[in-house]
Specification:
By secondary structure, this protein is mostly helical. It has helices spanning 8-25, 51-72, 77-105, 116-133, 137-157, 167-175, 199-217, 221-237, 251-274, 282-285, 288-304, 308-323, 325-349; strands at 182-184, 189-191.
Length: 356
């Protein structure tokens, strides 16, 4: 979707987020990863847990920047919404295709239905619907509050917050079953970190980005400062009832990560758009989905063809013996990101942008 007002800061922040995704998704050795590059096992929030919320927040920001000027200029919302929903459908299809490739090449026991791209597609489509059909700022803030309170009430009122007992996992067990990310045939329980009910929290993150994008478009930096500070404070206070939990995408997690995402957006806007710093990460940002999908296919092919282990041993085994296995694992991840940085930079120089 072509943006009428494209801010380099948003492309840079999106690109750095994608690069971080590739870094944490592709260690050389999953058994030796430094803790900041791992997700919290259940409750809690590590730096890695910020990455996906940042991306969904930027999805909302980008939609506001892309659709807002056109709608303000009098464009009919119907065609814009249809185009956005079609794109959401293509992102969903790509996510399913990538999971099909992984199921086939890596001989996975079951096909996984939900996933990162599938969640992005749902949140993108939902935010586009609001941006085109429910444009009132008050209505969007009210919906955000309803999502946070309603989803929080479901988590607190329909079970406990354990992995087995929470309402989101129980719903995934009923609706996804063996096609979830985790499936225990012995107990008949399923769990998916990108499951169906927990997508309500992810939708709230995207809606927060939509509102932040509207303020960014108007240059309302003071409001963005208050949003960052207020979200962080409320995110801490809300842990008295609901802990931070990425896999459940709890309301406290929405607020905490949304506060950091807003602060990062403000910083990027100040440095890149106002002070004209070089937009580091821009090449990743303008080919975000292509980079993510390409890296996924690269990893699946290496694993499926049994090339990953010997490649890692040959290229980084010496470093493991010299500096320890965690340093070797990190080095592999950094090299993987560097290779893809060269690829997206080459694409950018030639003006090749792959839009789903």
């Amino acid at each position: 979707m072509h943006q009428q007002k494209r801010l380099a800061s948003v492309d840079a922040l999106r690109g750095l987020t994608v690069a971080a995704m590739l870094l944490v998704n592709n260690p050389g050795d999953w058994g030796h990863v430094f803790w900041p590059l791992e997700h919290a096992e259940w409750h809690g929030c590590t730096p890695t847990d910020l990455i996906f919320p940042f991306f969904l927040f930027i999805v909302g920001v980008s939609l506001s920047l892309a659709l807002g000027p056109r709608l303000d200029a009098g464009a009919a919302p119907g065609p814009l919404l249809r185009g956005a929903l079609q794109r959401a459908g293509r992102i969903m299809a790509l996510g399913l295709l990538l999971h099909l490739l992984a199921w086939w090449l890596m001989h996975k026991p079951e096909f996984r239905v939900m996933g990162v791209l599938q969640r992005i597609a749902l949140c993108f489509g939902f935010a586009a619907l609001l941006a085109c059909g429910w444009r009132s700022a008050k209505a969007q803030w009210a919906l955000l509050l309803a999502l946070l309170l309603g989803y929080g009430g479901l988590l607190l009122g329909a079970g406990d917050l354990s992995k087995a007992g929470n309402i989101a996992s129980r719903l995934d067990t009923q609706l996804l079953g063996r096609f979830a990310y985790e499936w225990d045939a012995g107990t008949g329980r399923a769990h998916d970190p990108e499951g169906l009910l927990s997508t309500l929290g992810a939708l709230a993150t995207t809606l927060l980005g939509l509102r932040a994008g509207a303020w960014l478009r108007r240059g309302a930096r003071r409001e963005l400062c208050w949003l960052a500070a207020g979200s962080l404070l409320l995110g801490v206070l809300a842990t008295a009832w609901l802990p931070w939990n990425k896999q459940l995408w709890t309301p406290s997690f929405v607020l905490w990560t949304g506060g950091w995402a807003t602060a990062a957006l403000l910083l990027a806007h100040q440095l890149v758009d106002r002070l004209q710093w070089r937009p580091l990460g821009r090449a990743f940002g303008v080919n975000a989905i292509a980079a993510y999908a390409g890296a996924w296919m690269c990893t699946v092919l290496l694993e499926g063809l049994d090339w990953m282990a010997p490649l890692y041993a040959a290229g980084f085994g010496w470093l493991g013996r010299l500096a320890g296995p965690s340093m070797a694992s990190l080095a592999f991840a950094l090299v993987f990101v560097a290779v893809w940085a060269l690829i997206v930079r080459w694409l950018d120089r030639r003006g090749w942008y792959f839009k789903v």
